[in-house]
């Protein structure tokens, strides 16, 4: 019965025994050598993407209904406008202050009943150079779209909603220790630096986690890193301008037009291609602040085939994470840790 | 055959420890990549054939790109990351997979091992990311921070995934044995 760490480790131990055969190793090496030989490759997907991006830029020149007719509505224009606003911002203080609400939405099922459980936790963050600083987070909350059944309630408590007061929490992305002074004021240079730093892992918490060579991973990490730096980094106006320039150069970005974040604030939205999905960002066009970033996770995969006689697990799964959102409720400069703008 | 195995003397869960880039021979990289990726993909997908396909793809990529690694000790972390991402990508499109994709490939290793079947059944029905987190923890013995890097999420999210995964496994077991609260 797999209920403890030891039980689960024992239960899954047969997977640890999977070993490659010599024939498989030989086949891999032969295939890799064959692929090393130079050959011409067609890239129809990229050509289509370029055409689509061009069409999107041209087509988005018209303002969306209800929007500001003078405001750019294509992704490139939105990001360039935000860059221009950011470039005129005053010099930062000793710390960048952010109050952030993390929102996790789960699909919860029990038999024929289905609910959505939303877990939220709000934190305050102070970051100086290299993401050094402090995070204070209160007790999180959980709410349901309809009263949960007794079985569902057992799934509802998450470990991510406990109170916290300590060092700034930086848990994802490759730029955990970036010295902010190293970010150039030029968009092209900033983009090159981000890509190089992501590939060589120079600022990561653990260099062993890098480099990121899988197709699309570096491109996705550049977008996430730029958004993270824009939201949480204690950067100068020209540096933030450069980072918006980095985002505007990402291929495949699309406009979401005038949108409202979960806190009810109006902004302009941009969706950036992410590995297997989209990273959606809402920007305050007046201040260039990041109001919200979010991603929607794909639905759980169906169960695989099971041989006769093997226990059928519950399907659909009782709990699956459906969405994740960061709402930047307040941002500003602070002269000291614990001080609020 | 024996010569290839002699070059891959790693234990099941231990990290690849090499002192210099030249130590990363193609055979060692291929063996390590096949081992890491197959175990990871098997845990995420529960499908022996799909896991074999992913392991091969990851291993080919690893052999081709290993020369670019500045730090050979980073190989394991890199392999975990690309293997997890490949497995999660496959999980998303599993329903659309065609048998024809595998035409012409050698048959994968047999999956009729009863112990292996029971092992993967414990994870079946869980969301792919929960399966990935449980596999990285209980098959590869990775700590929260390393799992977070592989899944590209916060360590808190990893703890949540692990907690929910363990709870789902426990519930599945209860349901299977007639718990009073069973919904299935």
Please, could you describe this protein's structure?
- The complex is a heterodimer of chains A (341) and B (184).
- By secondary structure, chain A is an alpha+beta fold.
- Chain A is built from nine helices and ten strands.
- In chain A, strands 1, 2, 3, 4, 5, 6, 7, 8, 9 and 10 form a ten-stranded antiparallel β-sheet that branches.
- In chain A, α7 (187-200) crosses α8 (217-232), α7 (187-200) packs across α9 and α8 packs antiparallel against α9 (237-248).
- Chain A is globular, with a radius of gyration of 23 Å.
Low-confidence stretches of chain B: 1-22, 95-111, 179-184
Strand content of chain A: 25-35%
Structural class of chain B: mainly alpha
Beta-strand segment tally of chain A? 10
Outline the biggest β-sheet of chain A: 10 strands, antiparallel
- What percent strand of chain B? under 5%
The quaternary state of the protein chains shown equals heterodimer
What's the gyration radius of chain B in Å? 17 Å
Terminus-to-terminus distance of chain A: 53 Å
Task: Please state the average pLDDT score of chain A.
Answer: 78
Terminal residue distance of chain B? 49 Å
Please tell me how large the radius of gyration of chain A is: 23 Å
Number of helices of chain B: 8
The biggest beta sheet of chain B is recorded as: none
Please render the helix and strand layout as text.
The complex is a heterodimer of chains A (341) and B (184).
Chain A: H1 5-11, H2 13-16, H3 22-36, H4 44-59, H5 75-87, E1 95-110, E2 113-127, E3 133-137, E4 141-144, H6 150-153, E5 164-167, H7 187-200, H8 217-232, H9 237-248, E6 254-260, E7 266-274, E8 277-283, E9 290-296, E10 319-334
Helix pairs in contact in A: 5-9, 7-8, 7-9, 8-9
Chain B: H1 2-6, H2 26-45, H3 48-65, H4 75-92, H5 114-121, H6 128-138, H7 144-151, H8 155-176
């Amino acid at each position: 019965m797999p209920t403890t760490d030891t039980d689960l480790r024992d239960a899954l131990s047969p997977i640890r025994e999977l070993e490659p055969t010599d024939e498989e190793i030989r086949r891999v090496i032969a295939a890799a050598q064959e692929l090393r030989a130079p050959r011409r490759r067609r890239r129809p997907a990229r050509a289509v993407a370029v055409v689509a991006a061009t069409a999107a830029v041209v087509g988005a020149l018209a303002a969306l209904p209800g929007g500001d007719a003078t405001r750019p509505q294509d992704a490139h224009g939105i990001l360039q406008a935000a860059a221009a606003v950011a470039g005129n911002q005053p010099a930062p203080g000793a710390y960048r202050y952010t109050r952030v609400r993390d929102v996790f939405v789960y699909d919860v099922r029990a038999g024929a009943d289905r609910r959505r459980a939303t877990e939220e936790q709000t934190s305050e963050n102070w970051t100086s150079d290299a993401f050094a600083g402090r995070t204070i987070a209160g007790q999180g909350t959980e709410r349901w779209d309809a009263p949960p059944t007794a079985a569902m309630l057992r799934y509802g408590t998450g470990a991510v909603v406990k109170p916290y007061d300590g060092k700034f929490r930086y848990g994802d992305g490759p730029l955990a220790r970036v010295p902010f002074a190293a970010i150039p004021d030029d968009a092209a240079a900033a983009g090159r630096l981000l890509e190089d730093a992501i590939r060589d892992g120079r600022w990561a918490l653990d260099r062993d986690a890098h480099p990121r060579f899988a197709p699309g991973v570096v491109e996705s990490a550049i977008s996430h890193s730029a958004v993270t730096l824009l939201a949480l980094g204690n950067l100068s106006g020209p540096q933030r301008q450069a980072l918006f320039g980095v985002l505007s150069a990402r291929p495949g970005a699309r406009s979401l037009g005038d949108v409202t974040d979960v806190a009810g604030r109006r902004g302009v939205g941009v969706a950036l291609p992410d590995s297997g999905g989209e990273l959606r960002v809402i920007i305050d066009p007046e201040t260039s602040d990041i109001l919200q970033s979010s991603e929607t996770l794909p639905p759980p995969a169906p169960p695989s085939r099971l041989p006769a006689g093997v226990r059928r697990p519950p399907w659909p799964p009782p709990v699956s994470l459906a969405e994740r959102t960061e709402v930047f409720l307040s941002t500003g400069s602070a002269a000291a840790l614990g001080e609020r703008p | 055959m024996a010569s290839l195995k002699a070059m891959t003397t790693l234990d099941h869960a231990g990290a690849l420890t090499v002192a210099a880039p030249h130590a990363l021979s193609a055979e060692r990289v291929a063996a390590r990549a096949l081992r890491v990726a197959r175990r990871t993909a098997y845990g995420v997908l529960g499908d022996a054939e799909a896991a074999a396909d992913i392991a091969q793809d990851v291993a080919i990529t690893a052999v081709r790109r290993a020369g670019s690694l500045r730090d050979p000790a980073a190989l394991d972390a890199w392999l975990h990351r690309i293997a997890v991402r490949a497995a999660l990508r496959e999980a998303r499109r599993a329903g659309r997979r065609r048998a024809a994709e595998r035409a012409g490939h050698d048959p994968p290793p047999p999956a009729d091992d009863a112990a292996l079947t029971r092992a993967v059944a414990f994870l079946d029905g869980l969301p792919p990311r929960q399966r990935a987190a449980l596999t990285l923890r209980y098959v590869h013995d990775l700590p929260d921070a390393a799992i977070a890097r592989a899944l590209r999420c916060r360590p808190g999210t990893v703890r949540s995934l692990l907690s929910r995964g363990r709870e789902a496994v426990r519930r599945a077991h209860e349901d299977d044995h007639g718990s009073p609260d069973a919904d299935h």
